[in-house]
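[09:14] KT: can someone run the structure on this one? pasting the chain below
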Amino acid sequence: MSEQEPYERDQFLEKEGIVGARWWNKHLQRDEVITRRSSLRGLLIGGAVVFGIGVLAIKNCDDDEDGASGVPERRNALEMQRNHGWNFGYRGEGVSVDGIDPQPFSAAQLSTLVADLAPKDARYSPYHVPTVLQSATAGPLTPLASDPLTAVKLPEIIRPMITVDMEVAYRRGLALAGLFSEAKVENVAVVVDLSGPESVAFAAGAAGTMAMVFTVDNWPHPRGVVPAHRTLAAAIHYQRRFSQTKPGPNAPPLFVLDRHRIDPYGDDATQFDNRHVAKLPVAAALTQMGIRHVLYVVPEGAVIQELDDLTDAFVGYQAAEIDVRVLPVSAFAPLWENYLYGGTAETHLCFWHDYPWVVPPPPCALAFAEPPGARYVPRPRVSPYSSGPGGSLKRPDQFATVAVFADDQHAVLGAHNGSTPAVPVRSGSWNRSTGSGCGG
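[09:31] RB: done, structure tokens below
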């Protein structure tokens, strides 16, 4: 076959249900060998082919009218994970943790994780939020046809984790528990707001003297805004300690928060919005428990102020005459292998002078400047999570939601993630594409 000059499009037609074009090779126009009859025959054949393709395209568009192509919607992210898998939208991806625990581990222990970390005191059960713990063994309730056969399962990859920061947090928890135990304190609730693994470690150190109450209301995800898998891995590491340590009948509560819970969120292309807000008892509930004081533990160098989603709760405590004070966790400094308040044996008992909740306070050998957190008083303020004085906890628009494709009955077909929408094909699988065959 001889090489021909390229065809050029000299007309284009696009109307509803019709897409067509005329393509012409100008070489044919000056080729005297090709007769008018053969040219007409070629055009008729070409027209028939174009017509056939057009009919097929129209037919495919008609097929998509039943809703198979999906309509973008936003749904609650945690609900999508529970229904369709912990790594919804990225079912072929997993997670990894640093600081793998060298101790022997059996995945069988995950089956008792929720029970082992449940409060031993029934008074605190209504405020225990074990959502992240439940993810360790939960499977999808309604798997999607679009899920790959090689979907990564969380129970098969999650492992206990221990890091240097966790070990330090554990010893600081021991130090605070020692102070509470010696002074027989029962009317102070502790709210630990460190990174998830460190909060868990701090609570593990305080176990036995205080009653841990988990309040982490999300699941891990490969693209999660919040690295909840690290919190879960830390909980597994301390599972045995929590299960074997039983606080006394009047042990004060210690609420475990993950400080990353309201971290900034970017977009669906790179992140999955697994954020959540803190859930703490209201002032009346604390009063009923006999709580008169709240100690808010924050990271080293943190601003002496509560995170935005705690403002309304803390202001409510103050209004009910439950005073709230802030304790930077770094106030417990190392002395050899132990951690003490102020870093010395002489300053350790001065804690009860800075946080005067024991009457009379134990003797303090040294006098030093009162830390800023001891003078903290919560104030109403406007934030994305609070409307100011007299307001109540709110959530920003589309907070903790994920984009999905749904059919005309609002049944979820798959995740609408990435900068380019996922388009379902007739087989039910989901592929990356720049667009569908209909609608451009």
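[09:33] KT: thanks! Residues 36-64 form the longest helix (29 residues).
[09:34] RB: yep, looked fine to me
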